[in-house]
């Protein structure tokens, strides 16, 4: 009888510990699921919208938003240092769009996803699903062109990328922006660009391209809506990071944007 009792107790203990292990594993699994599920609050913009933004309602929405949000100074925080930007008032839709994206948290923990040596660093994209979900929840739209000869692609210019396919109006992408580096431009090149573009730079603009450089072949191809006012040394350092065959940095260059004033 004593032997049978020991066997029974052994089996009971085995079953008890097995059940305990199952319960613990279920608790751990539940915790993992809780940690990985993205709630609607994670992807909703920080400010409520009346509806998803589209090409049909974007101008009206931004025009209204701009009446209460007149800021022009932005800071980009990176592990390489900070970059401060000034947004132009003569590109009101692009300025306000950038402000609202920042305030809605769209650029939180995104990256400079494209780095072309001596040319540009481009931001606003991310490998993370959360960033893509935030954009989807906000809307699907592009911005009307606000190009002008007043705003050129000088060294330190801030501009918006765009699609070159089926985009005769040269509308800007809603999210992806870039900062210009570029080389100093010689007189023959500047002359040819003006001739082909059928426009004429001012003496000051010619001087800028000749002395600090830029990417003049992008003028009237993309909307320039701001410029770097401090931190170009940071832009230069980011432009030197190692990239893969698609110009994506091998180590993510994480950025966060905030509205300063």
Structural class assignment: alpha+beta
Over the alpha carbons, how many angstroms does the gyration radius reach?
Answer: 26 Å
CATH class of the largest domain: Mainly Beta
Low-confidence stretches: 4-9, 11-20, 25-43
**CATH topology of the largest domain, anyone?**
Cyclophilin
State the helix count: 8
Q: What fraction, in percent, of the residue positions are helical?
A: 25-40%
Report strand %.
15-25%
Keywords:
261 residues; alpha+beta; Cyclophilin; eight-stranded antiparallel beta barrel; two-stranded antiparallel ribbon; 10 strands; 20% strand; globular
Describe the structure.
Helices cover 38% and strands 20% of the residues. It has 2 domains: 1-37; 40-259, Cyclophilin, CATH 2.40.100.10. The strands form 2 sheets. It has an 8-stranded antiparallel β-barrel with strand order 1-2-9-6-8-4-3-10. It has helices at residues 2-36, 40-43, 58-68, 92-103, 129-138, 187-197, 203-211, 232-239; strands at residues 73-78, 81-87, 110-116, 120-125, 142-143, 157-160, 172-173, 177-180, 224-230, 254-259. It is globular and about 50 Å long. The protein contains 8 helices and 10 strands. The longest helix is centred in the N-terminal third of the chain and has 35 residues, at 2-36. The chain is of the alpha+beta class and 261 residues long.
């Amino acid at each position: 009888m004593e032997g049978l009792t020991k066997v029974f107790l052994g089996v009971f203990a085995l079953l008890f510990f097995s059940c305990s292990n199952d319960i613990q594993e279920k608790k751990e699994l539940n915790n993992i699921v809780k940690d990985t599920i993205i709630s609607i609050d994670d992807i909703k913009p920080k400010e409520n919208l009346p509806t998803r933004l589209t090409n049909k309602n974007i101008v009206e929405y931004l025009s209204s938003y701009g009446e209460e949000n007149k800021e022009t100074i932005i800071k980009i925080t990176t592990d390489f240092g900070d970059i401060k930007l000034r947004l132009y008032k003569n590109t009101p839709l692009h300025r306000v769009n950038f402000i609202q994206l920042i305030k809605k948290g769209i650029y939180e923990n995104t990256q400079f996803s494209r780095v072309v040596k001596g040319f540009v660093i481009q931001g606003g994209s991310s490998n993370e699903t959360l960033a893509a979900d935030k954009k989807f929840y906000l809307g699907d739209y592009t911005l009307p062109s606000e190009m002008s000869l007043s705003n050129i692609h000088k060294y330190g210019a801030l501009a918006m990328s765009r699609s070159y396919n089926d985009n005769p109006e040269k509308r800007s992408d809603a999210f992806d922006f870039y900062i210009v580096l570029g080389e100093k431009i010689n007189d023959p090149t500047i002359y040819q660009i003006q001739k082909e573009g059928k426009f004429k730079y001012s003496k000051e603009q010619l001087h800028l391209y000749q002395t600090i450089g830029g990417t003049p072949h992008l003028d009237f191809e993309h909307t320039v809506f701001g410029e770097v006012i401090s931190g170009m040394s940071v832009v230069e350092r980011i432009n030197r990071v190692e990239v893969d065959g698609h110009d994506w940095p091998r180590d993510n260059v994480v950025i966060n944007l905030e509205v300063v004033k």
